[in-house]
Amino acid sequence: MWEFKDGKLTSFEGGENVERLKALWENAKGDKDEVGSLTIGLNPKAKLGFLYNSIVLGTVSVSLGDNRELGGRVESSFGFQCTVTEPSLELDQKPIVKRGRLLVS
């Protein structure tokens, strides 16, 4: 689980590989704690398992760190993106996605 406040990573935890990711993150330079991108999947015809998992309805993809290849201004030696299936996402304490179900139209 990743927690953010004001667009910056404040804490994260996870399964057995999280320590490896934390080590990379802790040793990185630049704006490593900034959100690089956030995508909410809206395509009901897209299927998981392909290159564009982030467009699948009900998924949430988030990246940390460098986002210059997307035209952003976040510069870091760290960059990581993942797509979560069946996620829950709140913005300003308002639910947007709950267990992979989009709550707004």
Count of β-strands: 8
Order of helices and strands: EEHEEEEEE
Q: What is the multimeric organization of the chains shown?
A: single chain
Estimate nothing, just give the exact number of structural domains: 1
What characteristic shape results from the CA principal axes?
globular
**Which percent range fits the helix content?**
under 10%
Mean pLDDT equals: 91
Structural class: mainly beta
- Separation of termini? 25 Å
Task: List the strand order in the largest sheet.
Answer: 3-4-5
Low-confidence stretches: none
Comma- or semicolon-separated keywords:
105 residues, 35% strand
Question: What is the element layout, followed by pairings?
Answer:
Elements: E1 2-5, E2 8-12, H1 18-27, E3 35-40, E4 60-65, E5 79-84, E6 89-91, E7 94-98, E8 101-102
Antiparallel strand pairs: 1-2, 3-4, 4-5, 6-7, 7-8
